[in-house]
Amino acid sequence: TCTASEGTVPLQSQAQSALIVPYDNTASFLTGVALANWSAAQASITATIWDENGSNLGAQTITLAGSGHTSFVMSTELPLTSGKRGLVRFQNPSGGALDGLGLRFSPYGTFTSVPTIPQTPVTPAAPQITFLNPASEQVGNSVTLVISGVNLSGVTAVLVSPSSNVTVSNVHATAAQVTATVTIDASAAPGQRSVSVSSPAGTSNSLAYTVQAAPPPTPQSYDGHWNGTTSQGQALSMTISDNNVTAYSYGVTFPNLGPNCPTGSTTSSGPGTSIPITGGSFSSSTLSGTFQSPTQASGSVNWALSLPGCNSSGTFTWNAALTRP
Fold it and tell me: What does the pLDDT profile of the chain (325 residues) look like in tens digits?
């Protein structure tokens, strides 16, 4: 029967906020642990457990009083280690100093110290962004936003502030770039917003992003030469250039005003005529019209006759079509 026992304690002048302890709770062996909290503040120590195949079995919390210590058998305090071999990482999330000692007890009444491995937990760097492409988009559009920067591999979200009427989806991240689909609703308010990204390591700085107002609609062009007929059966023609009626001509039949009065005439516009077309309509003191389509129009003519002994006025309608651009 072997009754020899050995115990060693690592010599070091600096404790870390995390340490790793191997354990063996198989074949009647048991592993015990002693932990000491160097900090004056109470600490909630996280014990993360892996088996010998590297599978993460879970985590538990152990509370240590300020400047306090505790000792326990792993299989009792940490049941996930029962009947297994592997590693446990004890970590003080607040960063306070932690120290410990492991002991492996055999079924023969002997024990051996288990080396503990001090570990400074890797602190992931927060993401930082440097460039947006594009840096603006119009309301009512959806765009693939490319965000450049560093420490971006862990990014899980792209944040737009204010976020009203803006939706972000399809976020994909690499170490130096994040892409996302940004959809700007037609009702979104134009103006400057900010874009940042977030990961488990934190939220990045923000960059300016501009939501642009939709451009005014392009007016329908009615340019060309128009010909038609009036309700009096007379010919009517118009020339439209840059959405202005620049020339027109129409015939008028006058009512029977007497033997010395004319029965009709033709009226033509003079030089410099320019009647603007707005919202699909135009109007002047004599000629007015509305476009039912880019090739069909109708309207009215106000005419007046003022001659000695021949005075009259009236209105007639007309219809015309675009005959050539």
Answer: 455 555 455 555 456 888 889 999 999 999 999 999 988 889 899 999 999 888 888 899 999 998 899 999 999 999 999 999 999 999 888 778 888 888 888 888 888 887 777 765 555 789 999 999 999 999 999 999 999 999 999 999 999 999 999 999 999 999 999 999 999 999 999 999 999 999 988 899 999 999 999 988 888 999 999 999 999 999 999 999 999 999 999 999 998 888 889 999 999 999 999 999 998 999 999 999 999 999 999 999 999 998 888 989 999 999 999 998 7
Tokens 């309608």 belong to which residue?
317
Is residue 23 within a helix (H) or strand (E), and if so which, with residue range? strand 18-24
Would you state the torsion angle of the CA atoms of residues 178, 183, 187, 191, taken in this order, to the nearest 10 degrees? 20
* C-alpha to C-alpha distance for 162 and 160, rounded to whole angstroms: 6
Locate 283 and state its tokens: 């109007």
Rounded to the nearest 10 degrees, how much is the dihedral formed by the CA atoms of 158, 164, 166, 169?
A: 50
Burial of 219 (0-12, 13-18, 19+ CB in 10 A): exposed
CA–CA separation, 19 vs 62, rounded Å? 14
CA distances from 295 to 78, 282, 291 (A): 85, 15, 8
Does pTM top 0.90 for this prediction?
no
Q: Is the peptide bond before 134 cis (omega within 30 degrees of 0)?
A: yes
Residue 102 corresponds to which tokens in the numbers above? Answer: 């492991």
Backbone angles phi, psi at 186, to 5 degrees: -60, -25
